Amino acid sequence: AGVVLADNVSCKGSRIVNLRDLGGYRGRGGLRVKRGLLFRSGDLDLPTGVLDEELAPLGVSLVFDLRSKEEARARPYALPGGIRYRHRPVFSSLAECTGGRHLGFWEREKLFRVLSGLSLSHEELRPLGRLMLGVYEAMGEDPAVFGGIMKEIVEHAGEPLLFHCMAGKDRTGVLATMILLALGVSQEDAKEHYLLSNDCRREVVEREMKLVAAIVKDPAVVGVIGEMMTAREEYIELVLDRVSSYPAFEDYARARMGLASADLEALGRIYLE
User: Fold this and answer.
1) Rg (CA), the chain
2) CA distance 177 to 180
3) Are 135 and 97 in contact (CB under 8 A)?
4) Under a CB-based contact definition with an 8 Å cutoff, are residues 171 and 24 in contact?
5) Beta-bridge partner residues of 32
6) Which of 79, 92, 185, 262 could cysteine-pair with 180, CB 3.0–4.6 Å?
7) Are the C-beta atoms of residues 213 and 180 closer than 8 Å to each other?
8) Antiparallel, parallel or unpaired: β 38-41 and 62-65
9) How far apart are CA 27 and CA 78, in angstroms?
10) Which runs of E-coded beta strand occur in the chain?
11) pTM
């Protein structure tokens, strides 16, 4: 496995949760992914001065926000001057999921009952447990939004950039996986990079799970919520299995992401050394 953290950033030392560099992995032709150009993170909802201090050493000039419209409205942030902002929601709303399915089918009544301390039956708990599986299935099946962002990344011509969602593990994790695979990084290393969110988010998850456990009385529901808050191998494997159903990543990228061979070649020229 390759080195995953750049010298100037550590997910444990930053006030931006799950901030990491994609650089250091071995990619196509034995070349390595360049450090200090592609950053990923969780939410940037920090006081303006603090956000300035965290982003300044990275030299970031462009930020992609993968959150939904509701998330962006609920937790806005102000980027330092000179950093461009592009809102590219993976899902247009919290309830939206490709294929006409809705992620919010349990969110109103059932989640209200959970947070009110009422138990759910096993029958009601089952769709809650499958929620994240459905999210990843959707992202693997219809990754066009990620392909569009990768085209924009090529146009950015190698200047440092950052992309993020709320936790920096699901939507951000899939985009990072797609970028690494496009650069020829192995599925094993891409999966390792994805799972590092659990180390980078450990303190946040422990703190949030204490709050959940204080409210939710059903231990089965607490367990399911805990699973949803972690990066799980079974989640990313749903995406990787969809990629592997094609002869090569290039075929998947062309058929599902709208990326041409020229786009992948340009990514390699810019981000491999």
Assistant:
1) 19
2) 5
3) yes
4) no
5) 26
6) 185
7) no
8) unpaired
9) 35
10) 20-21, 38-41, 62-65, 84-87, 161-164
11) 0.88
pLDDT per residue as tens, the chain (273 positions): 333 444 444 676 789 999 999 999 999 999 999 999 999 999 999 998 999 999 999 999 999 999 988 889 989 999 999 999 999 999 875 455 433 344 444 444 454 454 445 555 666 666 666 778 888 999 999 999 999 999 999 999 889 999 999 999 999 999 999 999 999 999 999 999 999 999 999 998 898 888 888 877 778 878 888 888 899 999 999 999 999 999 999 999 999 999 999 999 999 999 999
Q: Which ranges of 10-102 does DSSP label H, i.e. alpha helix?
A: 48-55, 69-74
Q: How far is CA 171 from CA 33, 92, 100, in A?
A: 21, 12, 19
Candidates 171, 174, 151, 199; CA nearest to 71 is 171
Taking a C-beta distance cutoff of 8 angstroms, is the pair 34, 205 a contact?
A: no
Q: How far out from the chain centre does Cα 233 lie?
A: 14
